Protein backbone atom coordinates (compact mmCIF):
# COMPACT_ATOMS: atom_id res chain seq x y z
CA UNK A 1 0.00 0.00 0.00
CA UNK A 2 1.29 3.48 -0.86
CA UNK A 3 -0.12 6.55 0.85
CA UNK A 4 0.52 10.23 0.18
CA UNK A 5 0.45 12.43 3.31
CA UNK A 6 -0.02 16.19 3.35
CA UNK A 7 0.82 18.42 6.33
CA UNK A 8 0.46 22.15 6.79
CA UNK A 9 -1.07 22.95 10.19
CA UNK A 10 1.21 25.90 10.99
CA UNK A 11 4.75 26.23 9.61
CA UNK A 12 5.71 23.09 7.68
CA UNK A 13 4.38 22.71 4.15
CA UNK A 14 5.12 19.05 3.74
CA UNK A 15 4.16 16.06 1.61
CA UNK A 16 5.27 12.46 1.93
CA UNK A 17 4.96 9.03 0.42
CA UNK A 18 4.75 6.01 2.71
CA UNK A 19 5.16 2.58 1.18
CA UNK A 20 3.96 -0.14 3.57
CA UNK A 21 5.80 -2.84 1.60
CA UNK A 22 9.27 -1.29 1.75
CA UNK A 23 8.66 0.76 4.92
CA UNK A 24 10.20 3.76 3.16
CA UNK A 25 8.95 7.22 4.10
CA UNK A 26 9.92 9.87 1.57
CA UNK A 27 9.33 13.41 2.93
CA UNK A 28 9.55 16.77 1.15
CA UNK A 29 9.11 19.86 3.34
CA UNK A 30 9.28 23.61 2.90
CA UNK A 31 9.24 25.55 6.19
CA UNK A 32 7.71 28.98 6.67
CA UNK A 33 10.23 31.22 8.39
CA UNK A 34 8.81 34.57 9.54
CA UNK A 35 11.10 37.57 8.92
CA UNK A 36 10.30 38.89 12.37
CA UNK A 37 8.07 37.97 15.31
CA UNK A 38 6.24 34.68 15.57
CA UNK A 39 4.02 32.82 13.11
CA UNK A 40 1.53 35.19 11.44
CA UNK A 41 -1.52 33.11 10.42
CA UNK A 42 -2.06 35.07 7.19
CA UNK A 43 1.59 34.89 6.10
CA UNK A 44 1.69 31.20 7.03
CA UNK A 45 -1.38 30.58 4.85
CA UNK A 46 0.24 32.44 1.94
CA UNK A 47 3.28 30.21 2.36
CA UNK A 48 1.03 27.13 2.30
CA UNK A 49 -0.72 28.15 -0.89
CA UNK A 50 2.65 28.42 -2.71
CA UNK A 51 4.54 25.62 -1.05
CA UNK A 52 1.95 22.85 -0.61
CA UNK A 53 1.41 22.28 -4.38
CA UNK A 54 5.18 22.29 -4.91
CA UNK A 55 5.95 19.68 -2.22
CA UNK A 56 3.07 17.51 -3.45
CA UNK A 57 4.44 17.66 -6.96
CA UNK A 58 7.91 16.53 -5.79
CA UNK A 59 6.35 13.62 -3.91
CA UNK A 60 4.25 12.60 -6.92
CA UNK A 61 7.39 12.62 -9.08
CA UNK A 62 9.08 10.40 -6.51
CA UNK A 63 6.01 8.17 -6.45
CA UNK A 64 6.08 7.79 -10.22
CA UNK A 65 9.81 6.98 -10.21
CA UNK A 66 9.60 4.44 -7.42
CA UNK A 67 6.47 2.87 -8.86
CA UNK A 68 8.45 2.05 -11.98
CA UNK A 69 11.63 0.92 -10.24
CA UNK A 70 9.61 -1.19 -7.80
CA UNK A 71 8.12 -2.93 -10.81
CA UNK A 72 4.56 -1.80 -10.07
CA UNK A 73 2.47 -2.23 -13.20
CA UNK A 74 2.52 1.24 -14.70
CA UNK A 75 0.47 2.39 -17.61
CA UNK A 76 1.13 6.02 -18.44
CA UNK A 77 -1.19 5.94 -21.40
CA UNK A 78 -4.34 5.56 -19.35
CA UNK A 79 -6.97 8.29 -19.36
CA UNK A 80 -6.35 11.53 -17.34
CA UNK A 81 -6.94 9.97 -13.96
CA UNK A 82 -4.27 7.46 -14.94
CA UNK A 83 -2.05 9.28 -12.42
CA UNK A 84 -3.19 6.68 -9.93
CA UNK A 85 -1.71 3.88 -11.96
CA UNK A 86 1.35 5.93 -12.86
CA UNK A 87 2.18 6.65 -9.23
CA UNK A 88 0.56 3.55 -7.72
CA UNK A 89 -1.05 5.51 -4.87
CA UNK A 90 -3.81 4.02 -2.73
CA UNK A 91 -4.92 6.94 -0.59
CA UNK A 92 -4.39 10.59 0.34
CA UNK A 93 -4.03 11.46 4.03
CA UNK A 94 -4.07 15.04 5.32
CA UNK A 95 -3.79 16.92 8.60
CA UNK A 96 -7.34 17.80 9.47
CA UNK A 97 -6.43 19.67 12.66
CA UNK A 98 -5.57 21.02 15.15
CA UNK A 99 -3.78 23.99 13.67
CA UNK A 100 -4.24 27.42 12.14
CA UNK A 101 -7.59 27.58 10.30
CA UNK A 102 -6.35 29.42 7.17
CA UNK A 103 -3.46 26.95 6.76
CA UNK A 104 -5.64 23.89 7.36
CA UNK A 105 -8.14 24.98 4.72
CA UNK A 106 -5.42 25.15 2.07
CA UNK A 107 -4.17 21.69 3.01
CA UNK A 108 -7.72 20.31 2.99
CA UNK A 109 -8.42 21.72 -0.46
CA UNK A 110 -5.18 20.32 -1.86
CA UNK A 111 -5.85 16.88 -0.37
CA UNK A 112 -9.43 16.69 -1.66
CA UNK A 113 -8.42 17.68 -5.14
CA UNK A 114 -5.52 15.18 -5.22
CA UNK A 115 -7.73 12.36 -3.95
CA UNK A 116 -10.31 13.17 -6.61
CA UNK A 117 -7.74 13.40 -9.39
CA UNK A 118 -6.20 10.08 -8.42
CA UNK A 119 -9.62 8.64 -7.64
CA UNK A 120 -8.45 7.24 -4.30
CA UNK A 121 -9.89 7.47 -0.74
CA UNK A 122 -9.32 10.49 1.47
CA UNK A 123 -8.03 10.06 5.06
CA UNK A 124 -8.55 12.83 7.65
CA UNK A 125 -5.74 12.59 10.22
CA UNK A 126 -5.55 14.23 13.65
CA UNK A 127 -2.12 15.88 13.72
CA UNK A 128 -1.51 15.24 17.44
CA UNK A 129 -2.46 11.57 17.19
CA UNK A 130 -0.06 11.35 14.23
CA UNK A 131 2.75 12.78 16.43
CA UNK A 132 1.98 9.93 18.86
CA UNK A 133 1.44 7.07 16.42
CA UNK A 134 4.70 7.58 14.55
CA UNK A 135 6.61 6.82 17.76
CA UNK A 136 4.38 3.87 18.61
CA UNK A 137 4.73 2.49 15.10
CA UNK A 138 8.51 2.82 14.97
CA UNK A 139 9.13 1.62 18.54
CA UNK A 140 6.95 -1.45 18.21
CA UNK A 141 5.65 -0.67 21.71
CA UNK A 142 2.36 -2.17 22.61
CA UNK A 143 0.42 0.48 24.52
CA UNK A 144 2.73 3.29 25.63
CA UNK A 145 2.12 6.60 27.33
CA UNK A 146 2.97 9.34 24.84
CA UNK A 147 4.39 12.74 25.69
CA UNK A 148 3.66 15.20 22.89
CA UNK A 149 5.94 18.19 23.28
CA UNK A 150 5.23 20.41 20.32
CA UNK A 151 4.84 24.09 19.50
CA UNK A 152 1.16 24.60 20.15
CA UNK A 153 0.60 21.64 22.49
CA UNK A 154 1.98 19.75 25.44
CA UNK A 155 0.12 16.72 26.71
CA UNK A 156 0.27 13.12 27.81
CA UNK A 157 -1.87 10.61 25.96
CA UNK A 158 -2.73 7.00 26.69
CA UNK A 159 -5.11 4.70 24.83
CA UNK A 160 -8.05 3.47 26.89
CA UNK A 161 -11.65 2.45 26.08
CA UNK A 162 -11.26 3.07 22.34
CA UNK A 163 -9.82 6.59 22.54
CA UNK A 164 -6.61 8.42 23.28
CA UNK A 165 -7.21 9.89 26.73
CA UNK A 166 -5.54 13.12 27.78
CA UNK A 167 -3.84 12.09 31.03
CA UNK A 168 -2.34 15.51 31.58
CA UNK A 169 -1.77 18.71 29.63
CA UNK A 170 -0.72 22.32 29.68
CA UNK A 171 -3.16 24.69 31.29
CA UNK A 172 -2.03 27.59 29.11
CA UNK A 173 0.27 27.63 26.07
CA UNK A 174 2.05 24.84 24.24
CA UNK A 175 5.64 24.19 25.32
CA UNK A 176 7.33 25.35 22.09
CA UNK A 177 5.21 28.49 21.94
CA UNK A 178 6.17 29.31 25.52
CA UNK A 179 9.87 29.05 24.67
CA UNK A 180 9.36 30.99 21.44
CA UNK A 181 7.68 33.83 23.36
CA UNK A 182 10.76 34.20 25.52
CA UNK A 183 13.12 34.25 22.55
CA UNK A 184 10.97 36.87 20.83
CA UNK A 185 11.19 38.96 23.98
CA UNK A 186 14.99 38.89 23.82
CA UNK A 187 14.93 39.62 20.08
CA UNK A 188 15.83 36.22 18.63
CA UNK A 189 14.33 34.98 15.38
CA UNK A 190 11.62 32.31 15.26
CA UNK A 191 11.80 29.42 16.05
CA UNK A 192 13.36 29.93 19.44
CA UNK A 193 13.73 26.35 20.71
CA UNK A 194 17.00 25.50 18.91
CA UNK A 195 18.49 28.87 19.93
CA UNK A 196 17.68 28.28 23.60
CA UNK A 197 19.29 24.86 23.34
CA UNK A 198 22.48 26.34 21.87
CA UNK A 199 22.66 29.27 24.33
CA UNK A 200 22.14 26.93 27.29
CA UNK A 201 25.47 25.24 26.52
CA UNK A 202 27.25 28.36 27.83
CA UNK A 203 25.10 29.20 30.85
CA UNK A 204 24.62 28.45 34.53
CA UNK A 205 21.40 27.30 36.16
CA UNK A 206 18.94 30.05 37.11
CA UNK A 207 15.93 29.30 39.36
CA UNK A 208 12.45 29.75 37.83
CA UNK A 209 8.94 28.85 39.08
CA UNK A 210 8.06 25.17 38.73
CA UNK A 211 4.34 24.46 38.25
CA UNK A 212 2.93 20.92 38.18
CA UNK A 213 -0.62 20.07 39.26
CA UNK A 214 -1.15 16.34 39.19
CA UNK A 215 -0.30 15.54 35.60
CA UNK A 216 -1.19 19.03 34.38
CA UNK A 217 1.22 21.92 34.26
CA UNK A 218 1.47 25.54 33.21
CA UNK A 219 4.12 27.75 31.68
CA UNK A 220 2.80 31.30 32.09
CA UNK A 221 4.49 31.95 35.46
CA UNK A 222 7.83 30.61 34.23
CA UNK A 223 7.70 32.70 31.09
CA UNK A 224 6.95 35.95 32.95
CA UNK A 225 9.77 35.22 35.41
CA UNK A 226 12.19 34.39 32.56
CA UNK A 227 11.39 37.60 30.70
CA UNK A 228 11.72 39.60 33.90
CA UNK A 229 15.09 38.00 34.64
CA UNK A 230 16.38 38.88 31.17
CA UNK A 231 15.14 42.47 31.61
CA UNK A 232 16.88 42.64 34.98
CA UNK A 233 20.22 41.76 33.40
CA UNK A 234 20.53 38.07 34.26
CA UNK A 235 22.74 36.65 31.45
CA UNK A 236 20.42 35.26 28.80
CA UNK A 237 22.42 32.01 28.65
CA UNK A 238 21.67 31.46 32.33
CA UNK A 239 17.95 32.07 31.80
CA UNK A 240 18.07 29.56 28.93
CA UNK A 241 19.57 26.92 31.25
CA UNK A 242 16.86 27.72 33.82
CA UNK A 243 14.15 27.43 31.16
CA UNK A 244 15.35 24.08 29.88
CA UNK A 245 15.97 22.62 33.31
CA UNK A 246 12.62 23.77 34.68
CA UNK A 247 10.31 23.13 31.74
CA UNK A 248 11.82 19.79 30.78
CA UNK A 249 11.93 18.57 34.39
CA UNK A 250 8.21 19.38 34.60
CA UNK A 251 7.51 17.39 31.43
CA UNK A 252 9.65 14.50 32.67
CA UNK A 253 7.93 14.51 36.04
CA UNK A 254 4.43 14.40 34.57
CA UNK A 255 5.52 11.65 32.18
CA UNK A 256 6.75 9.66 35.17
CA UNK A 257 3.48 10.30 36.97
CA UNK A 258 1.59 8.98 33.96
CA UNK A 259 3.74 5.83 33.91
CA UNK A 260 3.08 5.39 37.60
CA UNK A 261 -0.68 5.97 37.33
CA UNK A 262 -1.20 3.64 34.40
CA UNK A 263 1.34 1.06 35.48
CA UNK A 264 2.82 0.92 31.99
CA UNK A 265 6.55 0.77 31.28
CA UNK A 266 6.67 2.25 27.79
CA UNK A 267 7.05 5.92 26.92
CA UNK A 268 7.23 7.52 23.48
CA UNK A 269 8.02 11.12 22.66
CA UNK A 270 6.42 13.22 19.92
CA UNK A 271 6.48 16.84 18.68
CA UNK A 272 9.03 19.43 17.59
CA UNK A 273 10.37 20.21 21.07
CA UNK A 274 11.26 16.51 21.26
CA UNK A 275 14.25 17.37 19.05
CA UNK A 276 15.86 18.94 22.12
CA UNK A 277 18.73 16.78 23.36
CA UNK A 278 18.33 17.82 27.00
CA UNK A 279 14.65 16.84 27.07
CA UNK A 280 15.44 13.49 25.49
CA UNK A 281 18.25 12.85 27.93
CA UNK A 282 16.02 13.62 30.93
CA UNK A 283 13.25 11.33 29.71
CA UNK A 284 15.71 8.55 28.88
CA UNK A 285 17.30 8.81 32.33
CA UNK A 286 13.94 8.80 34.13
CA UNK A 287 12.82 5.74 32.18
CA UNK A 288 16.06 3.90 32.72
CA UNK A 289 15.79 4.43 36.46
CA UNK A 290 12.27 3.06 36.64
CA UNK A 291 13.03 0.19 34.32
CA UNK A 292 10.78 1.58 31.60
CA UNK A 293 11.50 1.67 27.90
CA UNK A 294 11.80 4.98 26.10
CA UNK A 295 11.57 5.72 22.40
CA UNK A 296 12.06 9.02 20.60
CA UNK A 297 11.70 9.08 16.80
CA UNK A 298 14.35 10.71 14.59
CA UNK A 299 14.12 14.51 14.41
CA UNK A 300 12.59 14.39 10.92
CA UNK A 301 9.61 12.54 12.42
CA UNK A 302 9.39 14.71 15.54
CA UNK A 303 9.00 18.17 13.99
CA UNK A 304 5.90 18.68 11.87
CA UNK A 305 6.17 16.46 8.81
CA UNK A 306 3.87 14.71 6.38
CA UNK A 307 5.58 11.35 6.95
CA UNK A 308 3.70 10.82 10.21
CA UNK A 309 0.45 11.80 8.46
CA UNK A 310 1.02 9.22 5.71
CA UNK A 311 1.98 6.49 8.20
CA UNK A 312 -1.18 6.97 10.27
CA UNK A 313 -3.21 7.38 7.05
CA UNK A 314 -2.10 3.90 5.98
CA UNK A 315 -3.37 2.39 9.22
CA UNK A 316 -6.66 4.22 8.87
CA UNK A 317 -7.09 3.02 5.29
CA UNK A 318 -6.40 -0.56 6.35
CA UNK A 319 -9.18 -0.14 8.96
CA UNK A 320 -11.55 1.30 6.33
CA UNK A 321 -11.52 4.65 8.14
CA UNK A 322 -11.88 6.96 5.14
CA UNK A 323 -13.75 10.26 4.91
CA UNK A 324 -16.10 11.40 2.15
CA UNK A 325 -15.10 14.68 0.53
CA UNK A 326 -18.39 16.23 1.66
CA UNK A 327 -17.61 15.40 5.31
CA UNK A 328 -13.95 16.32 5.28
CA UNK A 329 -14.06 19.86 6.73
CA UNK A 330 -10.98 20.80 8.74
CA UNK A 331 -11.16 21.47 12.51
CA UNK A 332 -8.76 23.99 14.03
CA UNK A 333 -9.53 22.72 17.55
CA UNK A 334 -9.54 18.99 16.81
CA UNK A 335 -8.60 17.35 20.12
CA UNK A 336 -6.85 13.99 20.19
CA UNK A 337 -9.50 12.53 22.53
CA UNK A 338 -12.20 13.25 19.93
CA UNK A 339 -10.70 10.78 17.46
CA UNK A 340 -12.49 7.41 17.19
CA UNK A 341 -9.44 5.12 17.03
CA UNK A 342 -10.49 2.75 14.27
CA UNK A 343 -7.08 1.11 13.84
CA UNK A 344 -6.71 -0.28 17.36
CA UNK A 345 -8.56 -2.94 19.27
CA UNK A 346 -11.06 -1.61 21.84
CA UNK A 347 -9.71 -4.07 24.38
CA UNK A 348 -6.17 -2.67 24.33
CA UNK A 349 -5.32 -0.22 27.11
CA UNK A 350 -2.47 1.85 28.46
CA UNK A 351 -3.58 0.85 31.95
CA UNK A 352 -1.86 -2.31 33.17
CA UNK A 353 -3.42 -4.63 35.65
CA UNK A 354 -1.22 -4.28 38.73
CA UNK A 355 -1.74 -7.93 39.61
CA UNK A 356 -0.01 -8.83 36.34
CA UNK A 357 2.86 -6.38 36.48
CA UNK A 358 3.64 -6.76 40.19
CA UNK A 359 3.95 -3.59 42.22
CA UNK A 360 2.95 -0.16 41.03
CA UNK A 361 5.76 2.27 41.62
CA UNK A 362 5.17 5.77 42.95
CA UNK A 363 6.43 8.60 40.76
CA UNK A 364 8.25 10.62 43.36
CA UNK A 365 9.16 8.53 46.30
CA UNK A 366 10.04 5.11 47.62
CA UNK A 367 7.56 3.80 50.15
CA UNK A 368 8.49 1.05 52.55
CA UNK A 369 6.27 -0.59 55.12
CA UNK A 370 7.80 -1.03 58.55
CA UNK A 371 5.31 -2.66 60.89
CA UNK A 372 2.35 -0.29 61.18
CA UNK A 373 4.39 2.56 59.76
CA UNK A 374 5.09 3.67 56.24
CA UNK A 375 8.37 5.41 55.45
CA UNK A 376 8.17 7.67 52.43
CA UNK A 377 11.41 8.97 51.02
CA UNK A 378 11.59 11.44 48.15
CA UNK A 379 14.59 10.06 46.35
CA UNK A 380 16.83 12.46 44.46
CA UNK A 381 15.91 12.54 40.78
CA UNK A 382 19.17 12.56 38.89
CA UNK A 383 17.51 13.84 35.70
CA UNK A 384 16.80 17.13 37.50
CA UNK A 385 19.35 19.85 38.09
CA UNK A 386 20.64 19.23 41.66
CA UNK A 387 19.55 22.66 42.93
CA UNK A 388 16.05 22.25 41.57
CA UNK A 389 15.88 18.70 42.85
CA UNK A 390 16.91 19.70 46.36
CA UNK A 391 14.40 22.56 46.43
CA UNK A 392 11.48 20.45 45.23
CA UNK A 393 12.14 17.59 47.62
CA UNK A 394 12.44 19.90 50.60
CA UNK A 395 9.37 22.01 49.75
CA UNK A 396 7.17 19.04 49.00
CA UNK A 397 8.16 17.08 52.07
CA UNK A 398 7.30 20.10 54.23
CA UNK A 399 4.01 20.71 52.45
CA UNK A 400 3.04 17.06 52.67
CA UNK A 401 3.65 16.77 56.40
CA UNK A 402 1.83 20.02 57.15
CA UNK A 403 -1.22 19.52 54.90
CA UNK A 404 -1.71 15.86 55.82
CA UNK A 405 -2.19 16.99 59.41
CA UNK A 406 -4.29 20.05 58.51
CA UNK A 407 -6.66 17.87 56.51
CA UNK A 408 -7.16 15.55 59.44
CA UNK A 409 -7.98 18.51 61.66
CA UNK A 410 -10.90 19.40 59.36
CA UNK A 411 -12.26 15.87 59.49
CA UNK A 412 -10.71 14.31 56.38
CA UNK A 413 -9.18 10.88 57.06
CA UNK A 414 -5.40 11.00 56.46
CA UNK A 415 -2.47 9.08 57.97
CA UNK A 416 -0.98 10.33 61.24
CA UNK A 417 2.44 11.90 60.65
CA UNK A 418 4.96 10.40 63.07
CA UNK A 419 8.16 12.04 61.90
CA UNK A 420 9.44 14.38 59.19
CA UNK A 421 12.91 15.30 57.90
CA UNK A 422 12.74 17.84 55.04
CA UNK A 423 16.49 17.78 54.33
CA UNK A 424 16.47 14.03 53.86
CA UNK A 425 13.06 14.21 52.20
CA UNK A 426 11.57 11.58 54.52
CA UNK A 427 8.26 11.32 56.34
CA UNK A 428 7.07 8.50 58.57
CA UNK A 429 3.31 7.93 58.45
CA UNK A 430 0.93 5.52 60.09
CA UNK A 431 -0.17 3.00 57.50
CA UNK A 432 -3.78 3.49 56.32
CA UNK A 433 -6.19 1.58 54.12
CA UNK A 434 -5.96 -1.80 52.50
CA UNK A 435 -5.57 -0.80 48.87
CA UNK A 436 -5.29 2.18 46.53
CA UNK A 437 -8.61 3.49 45.23
CA UNK A 438 -7.32 2.70 41.70
CA UNK A 439 -7.66 -0.99 42.55
CA UNK A 440 -11.08 -0.66 44.14
CA UNK A 441 -13.09 2.05 42.42
CA UNK A 442 -16.69 2.29 43.62
CA UNK A 443 -19.25 5.06 43.44
CA UNK A 444 -19.43 5.37 47.23
CA UNK A 445 -15.67 5.83 47.50
CA UNK A 446 -15.58 8.38 44.69
CA UNK A 447 -18.36 10.27 46.43
CA UNK A 448 -16.28 10.30 49.61
CA UNK A 449 -13.27 11.70 47.72
CA UNK A 450 -15.53 14.52 46.46
CA UNK A 451 -16.61 15.23 50.02
CA UNK A 452 -13.01 15.26 51.27
CA UNK A 453 -11.84 17.64 48.58
CA UNK A 454 -14.72 20.03 49.31
CA UNK A 455 -13.76 19.97 52.99
CA UNK A 456 -10.10 20.86 52.42
CA UNK A 457 -11.02 23.52 49.86
CA UNK A 458 -13.31 25.11 52.41
CA UNK A 459 -10.41 24.97 54.87
CA UNK A 460 -8.28 27.00 52.47
CA UNK A 461 -6.00 24.57 50.65
CA UNK A 462 -5.88 22.13 47.73
CA UNK A 463 -4.47 18.61 47.46
CA UNK A 464 -2.63 19.28 44.19
CA UNK A 465 -2.51 15.66 43.00
CA UNK A 466 -5.73 13.82 43.94
CA UNK A 467 -5.43 10.82 41.64
CA UNK A 468 -6.91 7.38 42.28
CA UNK A 469 -3.46 6.26 43.49
CA UNK A 470 -3.40 8.94 46.14
CA UNK A 471 -6.50 7.69 47.91
CA UNK A 472 -6.32 4.64 50.19
CA UNK A 473 -9.42 2.59 50.90
CA UNK A 474 -10.58 0.10 53.52
CA UNK A 475 -14.23 -0.89 53.29
CA UNK A 476 -16.13 2.35 52.77
CA UNK A 477 -13.48 4.43 54.51
CA UNK A 478 -11.34 6.54 52.21
CA UNK A 479 -8.11 8.32 53.18
CA UNK A 480 -6.35 11.04 51.23
CA UNK A 481 -2.56 10.66 51.05
CA UNK A 482 0.33 12.32 49.22
CA UNK A 483 -0.31 16.05 49.80
CA UNK A 484 3.15 17.02 48.49
CA UNK A 485 1.79 19.20 45.69
CA UNK A 486 -0.81 20.88 47.92
CA UNK A 487 -0.80 24.55 48.85
CA UNK A 488 -2.94 27.20 50.49
CA UNK A 489 -5.27 28.98 48.12
CA UNK A 490 -8.80 30.29 47.94
CA UNK A 491 -8.94 30.52 44.15
CA UNK A 492 -11.80 28.74 42.44
CA UNK A 493 -9.47 27.88 39.54
CA UNK A 494 -7.21 25.92 41.90
CA UNK A 495 -10.23 24.10 43.35
CA UNK A 496 -11.42 23.23 39.84
CA UNK A 497 -7.95 21.88 39.01
CA UNK A 498 -8.14 19.41 41.92
CA UNK A 499 -11.47 18.17 40.54
CA UNK A 500 -10.02 18.02 37.03
CA UNK A 501 -6.99 15.97 38.14
CA UNK A 502 -9.21 13.42 39.86
CA UNK A 503 -11.55 13.26 36.85
CA UNK A 504 -8.66 12.68 34.44
CA UNK A 505 -7.23 9.89 36.56
CA UNK A 506 -10.60 8.11 36.64
CA UNK A 507 -11.20 8.59 32.92
CA UNK A 508 -7.74 7.33 32.01
CA UNK A 509 -8.06 4.04 33.86
CA UNK A 510 -11.64 3.10 34.82
CA UNK A 511 -13.78 0.75 32.73
CA UNK A 512 -16.93 2.78 33.19
CA UNK A 513 -15.95 6.24 34.45
CA UNK A 514 -19.29 8.07 34.11
CA UNK A 515 -21.15 6.89 37.25
CA UNK A 516 -17.95 7.25 39.30
CA UNK A 517 -17.50 10.84 38.20
CA UNK A 518 -21.15 11.66 38.87
CA UNK A 519 -20.83 10.30 42.41
CA UNK A 520 -17.59 12.23 42.91
CA UNK A 521 -19.17 15.51 41.83
CA UNK A 522 -22.31 14.89 43.88
CA UNK A 523 -20.15 14.35 46.97
CA UNK A 524 -18.23 17.53 46.27
CA UNK A 525 -21.40 19.57 45.68
CA UNK A 526 -23.10 18.31 48.84
CA UNK A 527 -20.25 19.26 51.17
CA UNK A 528 -19.37 22.46 49.29
CA UNK A 529 -22.94 23.64 49.80
CA UNK A 530 -22.92 23.06 53.54
CA UNK A 531 -19.46 24.62 53.93
CA UNK A 532 -20.15 27.56 51.66
CA UNK A 533 -19.21 30.66 53.56
CA UNK A 534 -21.69 32.74 51.61
CA UNK A 535 -19.35 33.93 48.85
CA UNK A 536 -20.60 31.25 46.46
CA UNK A 537 -17.01 30.32 45.70
CA UNK A 538 -17.19 26.65 46.66
CA UNK A 539 -20.07 25.75 44.40
CA UNK A 540 -18.42 27.60 41.54
CA UNK A 541 -15.64 25.04 41.43
CA UNK A 542 -17.87 22.62 39.52
CA UNK A 543 -18.91 25.33 37.08
CA UNK A 544 -15.27 26.26 36.63
CA UNK A 545 -14.41 22.61 36.09
CA UNK A 546 -16.65 22.59 33.02
CA UNK A 547 -14.73 25.58 31.68
CA UNK A 548 -11.36 23.93 32.37
CA UNK A 549 -12.50 20.82 30.49
CA UNK A 550 -13.85 22.77 27.55
CA UNK A 551 -10.95 25.13 27.08
CA UNK A 552 -9.53 25.01 23.58
CA UNK A 553 -5.79 25.18 23.85
CA UNK A 554 -4.88 24.85 20.22
CA UNK A 555 -4.79 28.39 18.91
C1 LIG B 1 -0.76 21.96 15.62
C2 LIG B 1 0.63 21.96 14.99
O1 LIG B 1 0.70 22.96 14.04
C3 LIG B 1 1.70 22.19 16.01
N1 LIG B 1 2.96 22.01 15.37
C4 LIG B 1 4.09 22.50 15.87
O2 LIG B 1 4.10 23.13 16.88
O3 LIG B 1 5.29 22.25 15.22
P1 LIG B 1 6.35 21.24 15.81
O4 LIG B 1 7.31 21.02 14.71
O5 LIG B 1 5.71 20.03 16.43
O6 LIG B 1 7.07 22.07 16.96
C5 LIG B 1 7.66 23.32 16.72
C6 LIG B 1 8.26 23.84 18.01
O7 LIG B 1 9.42 23.09 18.35
C7 LIG B 1 10.37 23.95 18.90
N2 LIG B 1 11.69 23.37 18.74
C8 LIG B 1 12.32 22.98 17.61
N3 LIG B 1 13.56 22.55 17.88
C9 LIG B 1 13.74 22.65 19.22
C10 LIG B 1 14.82 22.38 20.12
N4 LIG B 1 15.98 21.91 19.69
N5 LIG B 1 14.61 22.62 21.43
C11 LIG B 1 13.44 23.09 21.88
N6 LIG B 1 12.41 23.38 21.09
C12 LIG B 1 12.56 23.17 19.77
C13 LIG B 1 10.21 25.23 18.11
O8 LIG B 1 10.77 26.34 18.82
C14 LIG B 1 8.70 25.30 17.95
O9 LIG B 1 8.11 25.99 19.04
C15 LIG B 1 1.64 21.18 17.14
O10 LIG B 1 1.95 20.01 16.91
O11 LIG B 1 1.31 21.57 18.27
N1 LIG C 1 0.23 6.09 54.81
C1 LIG C 1 0.14 5.10 53.91
N2 LIG C 1 -0.53 3.97 54.20
C2 LIG C 1 -0.62 2.98 53.31
N3 LIG C 1 -0.10 3.02 52.08
C3 LIG C 1 0.58 4.10 51.72
C4 LIG C 1 0.73 5.21 52.61
N4 LIG C 1 1.46 6.15 51.97
C5 LIG C 1 1.74 5.65 50.75
N5 LIG C 1 1.22 4.42 50.58
C6 LIG C 1 1.32 3.57 49.37
O1 LIG C 1 2.44 3.94 48.60
C7 LIG C 1 2.06 4.41 47.31
C8 LIG C 1 2.94 5.59 46.91
O2 LIG C 1 2.78 6.63 47.87
P1 LIG C 1 2.69 8.16 47.45
O3 LIG C 1 1.56 8.36 46.51
O4 LIG C 1 2.68 8.98 48.67
O5 LIG C 1 4.07 8.27 46.70
P2 LIG C 1 4.45 9.09 45.41
O6 LIG C 1 5.75 8.60 44.97
O7 LIG C 1 4.28 10.51 45.72
O8 LIG C 1 3.38 8.64 44.37
P3 LIG C 1 2.80 9.48 43.14
O9 LIG C 1 3.60 10.72 43.05
O10 LIG C 1 2.94 8.54 42.00
O11 LIG C 1 1.37 9.73 43.51
C9 LIG C 1 0.59 4.79 47.45
O12 LIG C 1 -0.10 4.69 46.23
C10 LIG C 1 0.12 3.78 48.48
O13 LIG C 1 -0.19 2.54 47.87
FE1 LIG D 1 3.11 19.40 15.43
From TrEMBL:
The keyword Lipid biosynthesis does not apply. Residues 529-555 are annotated as: Disordered. Residues 541-555 have a biased composition (Basic and acidic residues). It catalyses: L-seryl-[protein] + ATP = O-phospho-L-seryl-[protein] + ADP + H(+); L-threonyl-[protein] + ATP = O-phospho-L-threonyl-[protein] + ADP + H(+); L-threonylcarbamoyladenylate + adenosine(37) in tRNA = N(6)-L-threonylcarbamoyladenosine(37) in tRNA + AMP + H(+). Its cofactor is Fe(2+). HAMAP family: Kae1 (MF_01446), Kae1_Bud32_arch (MF_01447). Required for the formation of a threonylcarbamoyl group on adenosine at position 37 (t(6)A37) in tRNAs that read codons beginning with adenine. Is a component of the KEOPS complex that is probably involved in the transfer of the threonylcarbamoyl moiety of threonylcarbamoyl-AMP (TC-AMP) to the N6 group of A37. The Kae1 domain likely plays a direct catalytic role in this reaction. The Bud32 domain probably displays kinase activity that regulates Kae1 function. In the N-terminal section; belongs to the KAE1 / TsaD family. This is Probable bifunctional tRNA threonylcarbamoyladenosine biosynthesis protein. Binds 1 Fe(2+) ion per subunit. The keyword NAD does not apply. One of its GO terms (cellular component) is EKC/KEOPS complex. It comes from Halogeometricum limi. InterPro entries: ATPase_NBD, Bud32, Gcp-like_dom, KAE1/TsaD, Kae1_archaea_euk, Kinase-like_dom_sf, Peptidase_M22_CS, tRNA_threonyl_synthase/kinase. Its EC number is 2.3.1.234, 2.7.11.1. ATP binds at residues 359-367, 376.
Amino acid sequence: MRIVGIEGTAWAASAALFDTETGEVFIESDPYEPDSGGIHPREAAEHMSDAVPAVISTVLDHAAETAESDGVDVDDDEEPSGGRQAAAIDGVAFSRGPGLGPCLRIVGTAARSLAQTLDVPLLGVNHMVAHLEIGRYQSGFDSPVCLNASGANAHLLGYHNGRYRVLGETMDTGVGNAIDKFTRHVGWKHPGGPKVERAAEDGDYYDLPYVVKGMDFSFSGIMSAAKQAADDGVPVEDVCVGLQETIFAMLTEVAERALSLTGTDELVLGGGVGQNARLRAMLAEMCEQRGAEFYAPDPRFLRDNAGMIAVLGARMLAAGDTVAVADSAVDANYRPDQVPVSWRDDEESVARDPTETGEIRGAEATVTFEGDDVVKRRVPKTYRHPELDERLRRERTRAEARLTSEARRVGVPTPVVRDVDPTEGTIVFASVGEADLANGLTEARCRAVGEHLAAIHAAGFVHGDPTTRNVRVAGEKTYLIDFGLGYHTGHVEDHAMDLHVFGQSVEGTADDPEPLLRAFEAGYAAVARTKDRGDGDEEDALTRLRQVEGRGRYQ
